Amino acid sequence: MADSTKIELIAPHRCRARVLYGDTDAGGVVYYGNYLRYFERGRTELMRERGISYRELEDRGLIMPVVEAYSRYKASARYDDLIEIATSFIWVKRLSCRFNYEIRQTADQGLLIKGFTLHAVVNHQGKLTKLPDDIFIALQEIIDNPPVINLTKKHDRL
Amino acid sequence: MADSTKIELIAPHRCRARVLYGDTDAGGVVYYGNYLRYFERGRTELMRERGISYRELEDRGLIMPVVEAYSRYKASARYDDLIEIATSFIWVKRLSCRFNYEIRQTADQGLLIKGFTLHAVVNHQGKLTKLPDDIFIALQEIIDNPPVINLTKKHDRL
Amino acid sequence: MADSTKIELIAPHRCRARVLYGDTDAGGVVYYGNYLRYFERGRTELMRERGISYRELEDRGLIMPVVEAYSRYKASARYDDLIEIATSFIWVKRLSCRFNYEIRQTADQGLLIKGFTLHAVVNHQGKLTKLPDDIFIALQEIIDNPPVINLTKKHDRL
Amino acid sequence: MADSTKIELIAPHRCRARVLYGDTDAGGVVYYGNYLRYFERGRTELMRERGISYRELEDRGLIMPVVEAYSRYKASARYDDLIEIATSFIWVKRLSCRFNYEIRQTADQGLLIKGFTLHAVVNHQGKLTKLPDDIFIALQEIIDNPPVINLTKKHDRL
Question: Of B93, B113, B131, C105, which is most buried by a Cβ count within 10 Å?
Fold first, then answer.
């Protein structure tokens, strides 16, 4: 976790979410655990946009479970806020990869949270498994050639 | 609940959602309780599109809690499915209102679930409260002049 | 759904839950969809106490998905409330079964919600499947010989 | 976050939870974000046992939101597993405090996850606020005189 305090965004993917009542808690703000759902949304949409569906990885017998998750909460999102999830795919190795996240208010770009997730690569039996060449190269390609700003693109409409 | 088995859609509002891992359960499908989150999304987006923000109602001291909810599950949505939430605002009275819902697979329009929610109108102390004229008329207007098909409109991009 | 408004409890199983922040919403009360989690807890604990583990049913290739769920909300549970989930196993047929629920405040027994779930019996391919004799008889036995009041029993301690 | 990799348990409080279907995801295991609900349960029950209700703190105008959360996932809990949440109250200052967590399988004590949460002290307007003397002393007392092993005590029955 040596680099965990440094949560940089490099050419991030961006998508938006509207805060539901079901995301909030009695404090009037998004429940702290629910930001990990937004992180999931961010990394899934990033990969989909770059032509890799996580579901397809699974169909090939690969699972990439979270082995570490970290969040630093700066401000609170409230019911009905329109928030923006920025996700950077930071690195990929044969057995692991990492995503960084920043979530901001869309209206004034106020920072809500920064965080990261570290993932292992395992098979359906839960055993550590090396990424096959084609997928490793495709993932590395995402990092080497990150997408341009994409808030208005089709995938953001779900 | 006399009319509860009849769940008709009249000129419904439509919006889409992508099924997250966090929405599913170990059965491989969306957890049965999580469809009520999609219902919430459907009715909130319907009202927003017609110029009424539920958050603004709350700012005027009005809350519309669910007093009945019903779901009939026809088929299961899976991880990464793109689903379509169709919501109809069926009627509004001074003290209550009702929404009907249908959720379908976007790809083949296969029916996943039908349901309804019945809402009361209360104040912040939880006491039944009549809708003021302007809001009642604005809500009735939504029913009398339902939106046209709107899948490509701005609000669908969140 | 002819009998859905009549939600009777017959010799119910009872267990308790403490409301987490994560169960509530910005209205300060339990989110309406989260009561379906409490229903799940109620029926699972009822079956476990009577010697039937739902996980074991699954290991035998049987799944009992919810095909209808209904909730009537009477009052709101708040953060940190200790609530009591009363569950009745109402009937079982070869292809379906039904549970009724009541959730009350433990402190004053104030009614929070009544509801029911209707379940189908399917195999792992999702095809309707008749319950085998031994399980059908064991389930019928639960209904014919309901448990006595059990709030202090071991299973309530989790 | 200098000390974040060192997640020690000192005289931890222990309570148990049964994994619901609603806690799991399509991978067949508890969704990674839902462990933060277990963390919440752990720290709330720890404080309740030592005579401090978090709800009472709120009634006195104090909120202790999570400002950092970290989880290291070692193994996966599955549906119906009985898990044990061990929580240590590590330190308290006038403006912040920290809890460490370990969650294990009850059956074989297999480690599932380690983590921590760091909390700030704020008032209802979200402004950093010093803990008043009596509460600070009461919290410090928890740390100086941790509870003995308590799995069979009344509070564990919820």
Answer: B113
